[in-house]
Every structure is written in C-alpha cells, then in structure tokens.
Design brief:
Chain lengths: 316, 411
C-alpha cells in the first residue's frame, strides 16, 4: 500500500452528466492525492466509463467540475499532459517493438524529440520492460502486453494514471506483476485511478474504492473501512448440506441468521457474529448432513453483493 | 448442414449493407458504365463533339457543313466565340485541349481540280486518333450519300488526266450523269469507301516519339492506384479507434487531430512515390518527356496524392469498422475510376457520362497530366484542374479533421 500525498492531483466536484436527458452521472465528488490508488467499481452502466471520459476531457459535465493538477482537462492541454490513460484493449502498434511503441506514444504525448530517448529508457526501467524492449509488441504474451500497455501511458511521465481493467484476461502471475508495478508507480508519487472487477486484488492494492450505482456514488472509502462500516465484526457464513434439512435443522439455521436461496435448501448463507467454525458446527445437531461449513471475513465482493443485490462477475 | 452454412452466409451478407452493395449494386453500375461506352463504340451512335469550320463560305460548303452537323452522333460545337468567328488555329486549340474530339475544316470549295489540296480536312488529336478516324468516316459517308457528284467528278478528272481528254460526246454524257446524280442521293452502301482527294485527316501531336496513349494511361493508372493505396492505408485509422489507441491519444495533450494530419501527410508522400514510380517507367521505357515537364508534373502529382490521401481518410473517418471501410473503398474507387476515365478514355463515353466524370478526381488528374505531356500545358492551362484538385483535397481534409475533433471531444 502506498503513502498519501498532499494536494490532490484529481478533484471531482459535484459533477453531473446526462445523455439524451437520461442522467448518467449524478453529484459525483472524489479526490485523489499523489501516491494513492483509487478504484472505481460498479456493474456495467453504472457510469464508470462516462466518469473516466470526463476526467480525460472528452466529455464536458453538465454541472460541477473536474480538475487535473488544478486545471480543466477539457480546455487545458497541461491537464491532459498530466494524464496517462491505459485503455482496456491492448492499445499498441503490434508491428512496432516495445521501445518503438514507447517512443511513439511519448512523442504523441508531446515529449520533445531530444528527450524521447531518456523518457523511453526511464519507462523501460520503471516498468521493468528491458527483457522485451526489442521485441514486436504483437508477439508478446498477454501479460507482457498489459505491462507495455501501462508503460506506453507512462512514457510522458504523467501525474495521474488511469487504468481501465488493467488485469483482464491474464493469468495470476501476470496479474501479480501488474499489481506490483502499480504499487511501485504509486510509491513513486503517481496518482492511480483504475477500474477492475478483480475485487480480491483491489482489497490489497487500492487505498480507496468508490462504488458507483446508477451514476451516483453508493459507497466510498478504504476497502477495510467500508467492510467494517457495512459488516462490523460479523462474518460471512456458508453451510452446504448433503440432503434437504428437516424442519428442526432448517429452523436452527434460520435462528443463526442463515437463509437458503435454492429450491432444495442445500446451501445456506448469511452473516453471523464472529465465532469459530467448530463452535458454529456444535450449534447444529450432531447428525446434520453438513458437507461444507465456511466462515470468512466479508470482502469487497460481499459489499458488492450487498449494494447491487447480486454477486460480481467472476474475474476473467 | 450445408444449407445451414449457406443460410449463415446469406444472413451475414444481408446484414452487411456494404457487402450487399458490393455484391448486388456495384456490378450493374459498372456494367452500366461499360455498356454505355462499348455499346456505342463501334456504331454510328458514338457521340463526338465536332467543330465544323466553314472557311470557304460558299453555298456548297455551307450545305456540307450543315449536313455534317446534322449527322447522328455528331454534337456540333459553335464556330463562334465572343471575340468573333473561330479560325483554324482556334479549331486546333480546341482539339488539343480536348474540348472538341475532332474538327472539320472546310478550307475550299470542293471541285474537280485534283492538283489542289483536299478541300476538307478532319483535324484530330493523335492521342485520340480513334475519334478522328470515326469523324473522318462519317464525313466521307455524308459526302458520298449527300454529295455524290463531288467524288464522281474528281474520279472523272483523274481519268481525264491519266487517259487523255474526254471527247465532246463523252463530256456531254458525263455532265448529264452528274446532273442526274446531283438530283438523288446514292444508296447507302460501302460507306467507309474513301473519297480520294476530298477529305484529308490531320492528327495533331502525332509527330512525337512517344506512344500516343502512354501519357494518358500513365495518369489513369497512377490515380487509380493512388486511390486504392490511400484507402487501404487510411483504414489504419479504424484499427486505431478499435484498439483503444485513439482513446489513449485523446487523453493526452496532442489529441487525435495530429494523428489524422500525420496520416494525411504520410499517404500524400506515399502517393507521390507511387506516381514517381509509374512515370519513371513511362520515361524509361516509353520515352515520355518527364524531366522537360517536371515542375507541372510534380504539382499535379502532389495534388493527386493529396486528394487520394484525404478522400481515403475521409472515408475511413465515416466508417465504423474495417470491413465496412474495405467494402466502401472498393466501391468508391471502382466507380470513380470507371467514370473518371481510369479504365477507358472518356472521349469514348456518352456525353452525360463525360460530364459526370468531372465530379471525379480521376478525370482532373488524367486531364492534367495528359495536358502536360501531350499538349505541353503550363500553369495557366492547368489552373482550373489544379484548383479543383486543391479544393477537393482541402475539403476532404477539413471534414476529416472536424470528424476527428468531434470524436476526440464528444460534445
């Protein structure tokens, strides 16, 4: 986890945006300081992409304002120069080498021709791309392409890095490498704004999260703080049975605060007060056909289910 | 199973409007263009713009001029301008400039004098020799059918010169026969028979060493491939949009406009190289005087390349997918090239198609290069073509940049 900075790099003040009279963003307020990682969360259509477009200066909010390094990104090139965007797609020129891609995007981001060489060298070093610098981007593995994708947004030394699903479609080791890279970048003072469906990853990676729902912020804070706020000291419990429970066992499970959603009542879930699993098991009848009894600390996925009434999509 | 695959193909075609157009609209359109050209190419309804200049001004030449002007397939061009009646030099200029396919110069009253120069001269351009030949044939045919006495009288003079003078009795019979012939027209047969000594054909520019069609086809092929290559190159714009590169660039200070302008610059230079290669071959193998006209050639080449580049980028800006752009570009390039003269000379086309051709860059580029190498046109003669090409390139560029700006700032 990275350290906090001082003046916010990104300030979003009460912005609202409507598309064809349909509200897409409503009264959004967010700040992001240097060295912090903020994750935007929410199902499709929650307003994440629209918010990112406002931050990048592609959309003008109907109300409120977005400031990047204190300037309006819609009208001020300096604000846009301070922003690096990593799209969800692999936004690289596949026939160019990694080094050529970095140099191309550095130039297109306004880096002086003489300074491109050193900017590319610095990016290769910071993003640890030396091993693939001379290889065509199109021939790299998905994980390396994701890293180069981030590197190309870093080649002009932005102060705000925006990433849209940076770990989608890659294997766990590559995901860990991206996580490590983002932590390192934030440690260097970069403000990082990202969207992701990998909620488990965000619990350790993000300093703060903002859940968007129907264009507004449904909850925002640190992952641990939000979990504490919504779940207190309670634990998430899941009991699986081999056979449908009799009336006595079903009543006992209900008294513990568990509920079943399946027709045969084989799976029971709910929040319970903190207690060890053996204690819980002992509260059920000895001959209860329990095949699995799981007690865990609620995570961001639990919060997602609470806020949106359904579980998040599994991570690709 | 086979039917299922066929059904999938059919649905894919049905839901892809571009492919549908390419499959079912382009073929009949292309056929229409070719049919309009070649259905008339060997027959008398091939339309020729002809200036008939009656310099002799006798009643007979007046009748001949009217008869030629009234022929089917001859579109007469007025023999007067604001500055007064046209002379033979004006006629030659109009033919050289391509404003007339051929000219008929009635320079003297046709008579039986074999020693005099032919009284009728069909003046054509060597680069469009076919047009001159067609007009010559029609003039000969109208003389034979409408004015049969002219040919017979000259033949009789030839016999007189070769075999000695006619006797009085023979001369009397000949005069009688000629007067009878004068009263009725001959049957239409053997219309292509030459009327020796009556009609001469003169081709302008034919004395040059290069093959007559080279300068035309060098330009025609060059603009065709400039358009194809530019359209293909411009499709990268769509790839960048779909791959997220545009999103990345738009978020930065440079924006997307620089990318579009950069592509326009590259495609223009690419087109210039293509044109250079084609004209290098034309110079090397066919002896076209490239270096003698290098300045005007370069201006036309730059404008042609710029038009192709920016039309390609405009098309790519308007399309949402690579597939759509490929279909649209094939459609546009083939139609522009067919109408604009890249596939066959425009003088073979009917009038309405020729006029339509002026709405294509191909026609202006081809005319411009052809004028430079064939007629030796300079900036003054090329000003109109250059202006049209420049305006087209600028308009396509401004619209493309505006579309890029609109994409970047979604207002």
């Amino acid at each position: 986890m990275s350290q906090a900075g001082n003046e916010p790099i990104l300030e979003i003040e009460s912005i609202a945006f409507a598309y064809r009279d349909k509200p897409v963003l409503r009264d959004i307020n967010l700040d992001l300081a240097p060295g912090r990682i903020l994750a935007l969360l929410g199902p499709n259509g929650a307003g994440k992409s629209t918010l990112i477009r406002c931050i990048c200066g592609r959309l003008e909010p109907d109300a409120g304002q977005v400031l990047v390094v204190g300037k309006d990104p819609l009208r001020n090139a300096a604000a846009r120069a301070a922003t690096g965007l990593v799209p969800q797609q692999i936004a690289l020129y596949p026939h160019l080498t990694v080094r050529e891609n970095l140099a191309t995007f550095a130039r297109l981001a306004g880096i002086d021709k003489k300074a491109v060489g050193s900017a590319v060298a610095e990016t290769i070093k910071v993003c640890d791309l030396d091993a693939v610098a001379a290889r065509p981007a199109g021939r790299l593995s998905g994980g390396w392409q994701r890293r180069v994708n981030i590197g190309c947004a870093m080649s002009h030394s932005p102060r705000l890095l925006i990433l849209d699903e940076p770990t989608v479609g890659i294997d766990p080791p590559a995901r860990e490498a991206i996580e490590s890279l983002l932590t390192r970048l934030a440690g260097n003072g970069l403000a990082v704004l990202m969207t992701s469906h990998d909620l488990a990853q965000l619990e350790t990676l993000a300093d703060s999260v903002a859940f968007l729902s129907e264009g507004g912020i449904a909850a925002t804070g640190t992952p641990a703080g939000l979990i504490r706020e919504f779940f207190g000291a309670r634990r998430e419990c899941r009991v699986s049975l081999a056979d449908s429970p009799g009336p006595e066992l079903a009543a006992r499970l209900g008294e513990l605060g568990l509920a079943s959603s399946d027709r045969d009542a084989l799976h029971w879930t709910g929040l319970i007060d903190e207690q060890p699993a053996w204690s819980l098991h002992s509260q059920l009848s000895v001959d209860a056909p329990v095949t699995e009894l799981r007690v865990r600390r609620p995570g961001l996925d639990s919060l997602w289910a609470r806020l949106y009434g359904r579980h998040p999509e599994p991570v690709a | 199973m086979i039917a299922t695959v066929a059904r999938v193909m059919w649905l894919a075609l049905l839901r892809d409007r571009g492919a549908l157009m390419l499959a079912f609209v382009l073929p009949p359109l292309m056929f229409l263009v070719f049919a309009e050209v070649f259905s008339g190419a060997g027959e008398s309804d091939l339309e020729m713009r002809v200036l008939v200049l009656d310099e002799a001004g006798t009643p007979l030449t007046g009748r001949i001029a009217r008869a030629i002007g009234e022929l089917d397939g001859i579109v007469p061009i007025p023999g007067k301008s604001e500055s007064g009646p046209l002379g033979v030099a004006d006629l030659e200029a109009l033919v050289r400039q391509g404003q007339a396919d051929a000219g008929v110069w009635l320079r003297a009253q046709p008579d039986a004098n074999l020693d005099a120069d032919p009284p009728l001269v069909v003046i054509g351009d060597a680069s469009r020799a076919l047009a001159a030949a067609v007009v010559t044939g029609r003039v000969q045919r109208v003389l034979q059918s409408e004015f049969p006495t002219l040919g017979v009288a000259r033949a009789a003079s030839l016999v007189d010169a070769l075999a000695g003078p006619y006797t009085d009795q023979q001369q009397e019979a000949l005069d009688l026969a000629l007067s009878e012939l004068d009263a009725e027209t001959l049957e239409q047969e053997g219309g292509d028979t030459s009327q020796d000594g009556l009609v001469a054909q003169r081709l302008l520019g034919g004395g040059r060493e290069i093959d007559d069609g080279v300068s035309y086809y060098a330009g025609a092929v060059a603009i065709l491939f400039l358009l194809f290559a530019a359209m293909q190159g411009a499709i990268s714009l769509i790839d960048e949009r779909n791959s997220g590169i545009v999103d990345r660039l738009v978020a930065g200070p440079g924006g997307y406009t620089v990318v579009v302008v950069g592509k326009g610059l590259f495609l223009t230079l690419q087109g210039l190289v293509q044109a250079t290669l084609i004209f290098t071959v034309a110079w090397w193998l066919y002896g076209i005087d490239w270096f003698g006209h290098f300045g005007p050639w370069l201006v036309t080449a730059l404008l042609a390349a710029a038009v192709a580049a920016w039309l390609g980028l405009l098309l790519a800006s308007l399309c949402s997918s690579r597939q759509q752009a490929q279909t649209a570009s094939a459609f546009v390039v083939l139609i522009l090239s067919a109408i604009g003269g890249s596939m066959m000379p425009r003088f073979l086309m009917p009038g309405w198609l020729r006029e339509l051709g002026w709405f294509t860059p191909n026609a202006w580029v081809i005319e411009s290069w052809h004028g430079i190498f064939w007629r030796g046109d300079g900036p003054a003669e090329l000003a109109t073509a250059w202006s049209v090409l420049l305006a087209t390139a600028l308009a396509a560029m401004l619209i493309s940049i505006w579309l890029a700006h609109r994409l970047a700032r979604e207002k």
